[in-house]
Amino acid sequence: MLRSYFWIHEPIHQQPMLFVGILLMIFGVQFFLAGLQSEMIRHYAFERDEEYSIRQELV
């Protein structure tokens, strides 16, 4: 992991850490958007009059 870029003269597109970094950024954005979408679905599907608790249902 401790590569010195001064001694190794490989083109940047042949280094696997570039692709791993891009892949992790894509996954991070997808997880963020999936969470945002689920929060929006929960917010718009929530109706105040249908709110109940488990204790009310069991008694």
Approximately what portion of the residues adopt beta-strand conformation?
under 5%
Count of runs of 4 or more consecutive helical residues: 2
- The total number of structural domains is 1
Number of strands: 0
Radius of gyration: 24 Å
Give the structural class: mainly alpha
Helix content: 55-70%
Uncertain runs are none
Shape: rod-shaped
Biggest sheet descriptor: none
Q: What would you say this structure looks like, in words?
A:
Keywords: Membrane, Transmembrane, Transmembrane helix. The chain crosses the membrane at residues 16-36. The protein is mainly α. It has one domain (16-58). Helices cover 59% and strands 0% of the residues. It contains two helices and no strands. The protein has helices spanning 16-45, 54-58. The protein is rod-shaped. It starts with 15 loop residues before the first helix and ends with a helix.
Keywords:
single chain, 59 residues, mainly alpha, 2 helices, 0% strand
Give a short overview.
59% of the residues lie in helices and 0% in strands. With 59 residues, it is mostly helical.
SSE diagram, text form:
Elements: H1 16-45, H2 54-58
